[in-house]
Every structure is written in structure tokens, then in C-alpha cells.
Amino acid sequence: QVQLVESGGELVQAGGSLRLSCAASGLTFSTANIGWFRQAPGQEREFVASHRYTGINNYYADYADSAKGRFTISRDNAKKTLYLQMNSLRPEDTAVYYCAARISGSKMGADYWGQGTQVTVSS
């Protein structure tokens, strides 16, 4: 059974930083295609970033345009944990952030989801 447990969301001022974590179990973490989505109130869930295994300890990081240059996705295979370092946060980054595994090629969905962690950015 795949389990994804997010943590690290909190209230932060605009311009600040946060690091989200996602502890994974029940899957082969080192080769998993995993990432982050977010959903703001009244809006659809959207892709934020993914970290895809491309072979022999190589990974490809992909970002939504809104995240490029500000967010960094990474993983620790020994800890089976995915991270999202978010810098220069803006009020429009306010959302529930979800960890996801086995993300679709279209980046519109995934097979497995965490429960989400709330990020609130005040202006």
C-alpha cells in the first residue's frame, strides 16, 4: 500500500521560504516518478514540480512556469523522502500542496496522493 505523508506547510510572509517534505512508503522510492501539485481555494489542482527517474541514479526535474527559478524539488532515497524547497514565496502560492506518485505523462494527475499540507503566504 502506497502512503505519502506531507509536512512543512505553514503561514509565512511574502518573500519568505519553506521546505515541504513528503515521506513515502509502499513503493520503490528510488525509481518512482514523484512530485508536487497544489490546489488553491476555488481553483483546480495544478502541477508544481516532478522528479522523474531516468536511469542509473539520474533524475529529471520538471517545473511549472510559476515555480521555475523559485522552487527546487529533490529527493533523499535513503530516507524515502521528497522535498520541495520554496523561496521568494508570493501570496498566490497559497494553496494545499499535495505529494503525488506515479504522475501521468500529461502531468494532469497521479495514481497516488498524500493528504496535503497547507501553505499560506501573507502579503
Order of helices and strands: EEEEEEEEEEE
Radius of gyration: 13 Å
Which shape, going by the Cα principal axes?
globular
Number of strands: 11
What structural category do the secondary elements indicate? mainly beta
Distance between the termini: 40 Å
Write down the overall mean pLDDT: 96
Number of helices: 0
Low-pLDDT parts are none
**What is the helical fraction, as a range of percent?**
under 10%
Largest sheet: 7 strands, mixed
**What fraction of the residues are assigned to beta strands by DSSP?**
over 45%
Provide structural commentary.
The chain is mostly beta strands. 0% of the residues lie in helices and 56% in strands. It is built from no helices and 11 strands. The strands form 2 sheets. Strands 2, 4, 5, 6, 9, 10 and 11 form a 7-stranded mixed sheet that branches. The protein has a 4-stranded antiparallel sheet with strand order 1-3-8-7, with no helix packed on it. A hairpin with a 6-residue loop joins strand 4 (34-39) and strand 5 (46-55). The radius of gyration is 13 Å and the shape is globular. The N and C termini lie far apart (40 Å). 30% of the residues are buried. The mean pLDDT is 96.
Annotation keywords:
123 residues; 4-stranded antiparallel sheet; 7-stranded mixed sheet; single chain; mainly beta
Give a quick precis of the structure:
With 123 residues, the protein is an all-beta fold.
Could you outline the blueprint of secondary structure elements for this entry?
Elements lengths: L2 E5 L3 E3 L4 E8 L8 E6 L6 E10 L2 E6 L7 E6 L4 E6 L8 E9 L6 E4 L3 E6 L1
Parallel strand pairs: 2-11
Antiparallel strand pairs: 1-3, 3-8, 4-5, 4-9, 5-6, 7-8, 9-10, 9-11
